[in-house]
């Protein structure tokens, strides 16, 4: 349990250093959960944080399946409706390897 929260905290610090502003952490609704919601200039960024100790089975990136993406999109739409927000949006991924190497994938997938 702690590893997931530690990874999210590590990702939030990394992104903050890259000029993104944290708006929400662990946003939950009936559709799912979004790890981090941040603002990058005039763009709202929904961020999935994945940590994997091994690249076996495709590593962290492969764990963001089409099903997971669909849940993230539904959850993001819920957030946007709740906030009455019409900012441009994107979905990013923060991938953390076992040696704590961070890979930031911007526009990791489309909401179409």
UniProtKB/TrEMBL annotation:
HAMAP family reported in the protein's UniProt record: UPF0102 (MF_00048)
Instruction: State the family named in the UniProt similarity comment for this chain.
Output: Belongs to the UPF0102 family.
Pfam families (UniProt xref): UPF0102
What are this entry's molecular-function GO terms? Answer: nucleic acid binding
What PANTHER family does the record tag this protein with?
UPF0102 PROTEIN YRAN
- Which InterPro entries does its entry note? Restrct_endonuc-II-like, tRNA_endonuc-like_dom_sf, UPF0102_YraN-like
**What is the native source organism of this protein?**
Nitrosomonas mobilis
Put simply, this protein is called UPF0102 protein NSMM_110016
């Amino acid at each position: 349990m702690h590893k997931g929260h530690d990874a999210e905290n590590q990702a939030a610090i990394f992104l903050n250093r890259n000029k993104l502003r944290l708006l929400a952490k662990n946003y939950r609704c009936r559709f799912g959960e979004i790890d981090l919601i941040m603002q990058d200039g005039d763009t709202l960024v929904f961020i999935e944080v994945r940590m994997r100790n091994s690249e076996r089975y495709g590593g962290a990136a492969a764990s963001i399946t089409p099903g997971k993406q669909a849940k993230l999109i539904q959850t993001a739409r819920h957030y946007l409706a709740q906030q009455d927000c019409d900012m441009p949006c994107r979905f990013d991924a923060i991938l953390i390897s076992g040696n704590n190497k961070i890979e930031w994938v911007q526009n990791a997938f489309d909401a179409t």
